[in-house]
Amino acid sequence: PEFSDFQLTDLFNLGQKEVNARVWAVIASTSISLVNGTTEYSLPTDYIMTLRVTVNHVPIPERTFSFLDDTSNNWIQDAAGVPLEYYIRFDSSVVDGVSKESIGLHPASTNTVTLTDYYLAQPTNLSAGEDVPFGTANYRFYPFHHVLAFYAAFHGSLIRGDFERTAYYKSSYDILVNYMESINRTRFMFNQQFRGVIPETQMKTGGQ
User: Fold this and answer.
1) How far apart (Å, rounded) are the C-alpha atoms in residues 53 and 31?
2) pTM for the full model?
3) What SS3 class is residue 96?
4) ∠ at Cα 98 (83, 60), nearest 5°?
5) Are 132 and 26 in contact (CB under 8 A)?
6) Which CA distances in Å does 177 have to 11, 52, 142, 146, 183?
7) CA 35 – CA 37 distance, rounded (Å)
8) 142-171 b/e with 16+ CB inside 10 Å = b?
């Protein structure tokens, strides 16, 4: 064979990572018990980006450093209280020579409450024949596992210099990925620009 099992598995894993980044297939969550006065907490090693954060089930918005700096030159030293917003730091600490992302709160919490970060996670590498792309519990993607075969095929054809097959497999790959995006990433629950409208009657009655 022109490609070894190791090379093909490597292509499948590269494809799985690329597809996941585009369609947000692997969504995970981590719960952090906040400590009085502590501002920043490390995020999981499979972390890619945050989609939603809650503190004791109440959602809080993300802020950029520029936004916080415009609010106060010394915001990091603001008195602890109820966390109102969060930020992500990508260079907060180095562990064994590896930079780790962290989530920070403004202000730091005065109470022992639970923060939950719902985030896009790296998929587990495939290594054995029974491994399932995007995770065994990701049933909605079972019909699309062959997208990784198209990914490997178009890269393999490109390496071989077979540009006609490359174009065919690349087109098939793109069609599948675009469809996967339409049924997952662009759903309202993960569309960061979509907001519901609270009915006026609900606002007046406080939701009763």
Assistant:
1) 10
2) 0.82
3) coil
4) 15
5) no
6) 16, 24, 13, 11, 10
7) 6
8) eebeebbbbbbbbbbbeeeeeeeebeebbe
Helix/strand/coil for 30: strand
| Two structure tokens written together for 35 | 């400590």
Reported as a single tens digit per residue, the pLDDT across 118-164 is 999 999 999 988 899 999 989 999 999 999 999 999 999 999 999 99
Indicate the DSSP class of residue 1: -
H/E stretch holding 117 reads: strand 114-121
- CB-CB contact of 147 with 180 (8 Å): yes
Residue 1, C-beta contacts closer than 8 angstroms, at least 6 positions apart = none
Q: How far is CA 18 from the centre of its chain?
A: 12
CB 42 within 8 A of CB 66: no
Strands 40-42 and 47-55: unpaired
